[in-house]
Amino acid sequence: MKTSLFTILLLTLTNNISAVALPTRSQASQWHNFCEKQETILDRAVCIHVLKKHIEGDYVYFINDWTELKTRDFSIYSEGDLKRIHQQDRNLVQVYILRLPTK
């Protein structure tokens, strides 16, 4: 995972907290694509999980450091578990994106 890219995503999502309750469909789709381009399954699972939490309105995830979240919450899972978590969260995010406002 490239820290600078996650920092950009983190700052973008954090700035949205004060401006808009939910991202637009376009924004969420861009973030979804960003998450899917991460190199490792750990990075993809963490990224898509954080996006899911953001869409659900759980903004605490954007205050914490990404490295801490990966180490604390996700490093305990096997690669198979991470793939399962990623798939479940990705499926939810795709449904959520369809329900988001277009503007």
Report on this model:
The chain has 103 residues and is mainly α. It has one domain (3-99). It is 73% helix and 0% strand. It contains five helices and no strands. Mean pLDDT is 79; it is low at 16-20. Keywords: Signal. Residues 1-21 form the signal peptide.
Précis, in short:
The chain is mainly alpha-helical. The chain contains five helices and no strands. Keywords: Signal.
Index terms:
0% strand, mainly alpha, 103 residues
Overall structural domain count: 1
What are the low-pLDDT stretches, counting only 5+ consecutive residues below 50? 16-20
Main sheet summary: none
What is the average of the pLDDT values? 79
Radius of gyration: 13 Å
Order of helices and strands: HHHHH
Structural class: mainly alpha
- Kindly state the number of beta strands: 0
**Tally of separate helices:** 5
Helicity level, as a percent range? over 70%
Termini distance? Answer: 30 Å
Q: What global shape is seen?
A: elongated
List the helices and strands and how they pair.
Elements: H1 3-19, H2 25-36, H3 41-56, H4 66-74, H5 79-99
Helix pairs in contact: 2-3, 2-5, 3-4, 3-5
